[in-house]
Amino acid sequence: MEAPVQFADWKAINAQALIAVAAGQRGDRVSVRFRLWDVFAQTQLGEGLQFEGTAQAWRRMGHKVADAVYSRLTGEGGYFDSRVAYIAASGPKSARRKQIAVMDYDGANPVMLTDGNALVLTPRISRSASQILYTSYEQGAPRVLMIEAGGGRRQVLDDAQGMTFAPRFSPDGSRAVYSASTGTGSDIFVVDLASRRRAQLTQTASIDTAPAFSNDGGQIVFESDR
């Protein structure tokens, strides 16, 4: 990685960027270093980075390198180290089991978070990938639940009477917005996840549903039949 870069050779094959990676292992620890260059500008893109971890974490370190490269080339955040929440369906069509699950963005390391004994829908993972909101029918009527992305404790988001559904996290993960049945219709509610204080944002006889935060968390868009 310390040898001079022969930019002319890489330009000859129309390479736009060049990455040099060095990996090593000492005991159960693995380290990965990389440097990235703009071939045509003949400059290094950012400082060289190094990631360290256990030997079992080699895939994630590769994803972190990919995130850093993607960010330096595009100016946008990488997604290679992200997690995906989804519905895993199994069994025959007449007796289909659906479970909340998470996996790496490339499909590796799938983990089932629910047992499949109740219908589950609309999983939404927080930006930190630490929590998941979803709709469950385990109590008969649809209710929004929150579960740790690593498995374990589940909790009902709103223990008020009636149905709750269509949840979404705020961009910073501190709040959740969802729809709840109120009389003959449904309204939009937001809850602070730390204090569990909730606020009703709409109050009509119409059906207001599918809420989602704006990127800055300051506004909420939703669907309505009003």
Strand and helix layout:
Layout: H1 7-12, E1 17-26, E2 29-38, E3 43-44, E4 49-54, H2 58-74, E5 83-90, E6 97-104, E7 111-112, E8 120-125, E9 131-136, E10 143-148, E11 154-156, E12 164-169, E13 175-182, E14 185-192, E15 198-200, E16 208-213, E17 220-224
Antiparallel strand pairs: 1-2, 2-3, 2-4, 5-6, 6-7, 8-9, 9-10, 10-11, 12-13, 13-14, 14-15, 16-17
Describe the structure.
- The chain has 226 residues and is mainly β.
- It folds into 2 domains: 7-74, no CATH class; 117-224, Neuraminidase (6 Propeller), CATH 2.120.10.
- The protein has 2 helices and 17 strands.
- The strands form 5 sheets. Strands 1, 2, 3 and 4 form a 4-stranded antiparallel beta sheet that branches. Strands 8-9-10-11 form a 4-stranded antiparallel beta sheet, with no helix packed on it. A 4-stranded antiparallel beta sheet has the order 12-13-14-15, with no helix packed on it.
- The longest helix is centred in the first third of the chain and has 17 residues, at 58-74.
Which properties best describe this structure?
2 domains, single chain, four-stranded antiparallel sheet, 17 strands, elongated, Neuraminidase, 2 helices, 10% helix, 226 residues, 46% strand, mainly beta
- CATH fold type of the largest domain: Neuraminidase
Largest sheet: 4 strands, antiparallel
Radius of gyration from CA coordinates: 23 Å
CATH architecture classification name of the largest domain: 6 Propeller
Number of helices: 2
Mean pLDDT: 94
N-to-C order of helices and strands: HEEEEHEEEEEEEEEEEEE
